[in-house]
Amino acid sequence: MKKFLALALALVMVFALAACGEPATEETTPATEPAGEETTPAGEETTPAEGDTILVGFAQVGHESDWRTASTQSAYDVFNADNGYEMVFVDADQDVQKQIEALRNFIQQGVDYIILDPIQATGWDQVLTECEEAGIPVIIIDRTVDDSDKYISWVGSDFTTEGVAAGEWLKAYAEAKNIEELNILVIEGSVGASATLGRTEGFKQVADREGWNIIASQSGDFTEAGGQEVMESYCQSYAGQFNVVICQNDNEAYGAITAMDNAGVTYGVDGDVILVSFDAAKTALGLVQEGKLNACFECNPLAAPFVDEDVIQVMEAGGTPEKEIYMTETWFVAEDILESITVNGEEMPLVQVTDEVLAGRAY
Ligand code: GZL
C-alpha cells in the first residue's frame, strides 16, 4: 500500500508539474537512471516520490570513472519510488566543498537519511556534527571518513587488503614466471582518498617485505586522462627501467595502455610490462581476458542494496545496524597458472576471466 500510494502521488506530481510547464523529465527519473557521463556534474537531481516515502540525500564523489558510474547507477536502482524512496542526488565533481555544501543543503531539505561517499578521508567532523545535531543519520559508503565517527554505518571495501592482494599476487606471479627483479611504477588514485591511501599502503607492505624497487608513485586522480598523462611521463623518464605498472583503478589503466602503445612499450601476458589495476569494471575484465591486463583486483561499487537492506531498513524497524559492512571482492587474472594467493594469512581464490565470468558481471 505504501509503495502504491507513493507511486500514485508521484504520478499526480508529475502531471501537476507538467501542467505548470515544469520540465516533467526532472521529476520522472526512472528506477534505472542512466548515470554515465550524462550525469549532471555538480548538479542536483531528484527521484520522484510523495507521501510517507523515505527521503535520502546522496552526495556522490563525481563521475570520474567506470566504477563511479556503477556506484551512481546502484543508487538510482535502489533509492526510487518503486522501492519507497525519494533521492536527492548531488554529483560533487570531485570537489570536497561541494560535498560539504550538499550535506548542509540536505539538512535544510530535512532529508531522512544522508548518504556520503567522501572524496577525501579527512575534514568531515564539523559537517557531520551538524548532521547529528539536526538528527539526520549519515551513512558513509565506499571511501572512509578517518577524522570523525559521527555516522551510523560505513559500507565499503577494505582498500588495504586490495593492495596487499595485488602485492601477494605479483610475488606469486613473478615466481611462477621466473621473473627475478621487479622494478615498479605506481599510478595512484586521487590524493587523500582512502582508496588511494589503502591500496598504496597495502601494496607497499608487500613491496617492502620483498625488497622490490618502486621507482615512482604519482597520482592519476582515478581518471583515464590522468593515467595516460602519468604513464607518458613515466615512459619518457624511465624508459627500459620498469617491468611492472600498478594502476589504482581501471580508468588509469586504460590511459596507461594508450600511453604505452604510443611509446612502443609492450605490456600484459605477452609483453615486457606486467600491468595491474583495481576496480574490475566489465571493460577492464575484457582487457584481462585479452591478456592486456595481467590482473585486476575488484572493488565492489554496488553499495546501495546493502545501505537499503542492512542499514536503513534495520533502522526503520527500530534496530541498530552494524557500524562496518564489508563488500565481497574477487581477484581476477588473465592466466590459469595460479589458483589462489594467501592474503593476510587467508587463502583467496584467483578467478581467470572467461566469457562466462564476463556474462555474469553486473557492471
Ligand atoms: C574505490 C573508489 C574509487 C575507485 C575509482 O572504492 O572510491 O574511486 O577505485 C573511483 O575508480 O574513482
What does this protein look like?
It is a single chain. Helix 6 (159-176) runs parallel beside helix 7 and helix 8 (224-237) crosses helix 9 (250-263). The strands form 2 sheets. The protein has an 8-stranded mixed beta sheet with strand order 8-7-9-10-11-13-15-14, sandwiched between helices. It is built from 12 helices and 15 strands. Strand 14 (340-343) and strand 15 (346-352) form a beta hairpin. The chain has helices at 2-19, 24-27, 66-78, 96-109, 125-133, 159-176, 194-210, 224-237, 250-263, 282-290, 304-316, 355-359, and strands at residues 44-46, 54-60, 85-91, 113-116, 138-141, 153-156, 183-188, 213-219, 244-247, 274-279, 295-298, 324-326, 331-333, 340-343, 346-352. With 363 residues, it is α/β, with parallel strands linked by helices. The chain is elongated. Mean pLDDT is 90; it is low at 1-32 and 34-41. 41% of the residues lie in helices and 20% in strands. The site of beta-D-galactofuranose (GZL) has 13 residues, from helix 3 and strand 10.
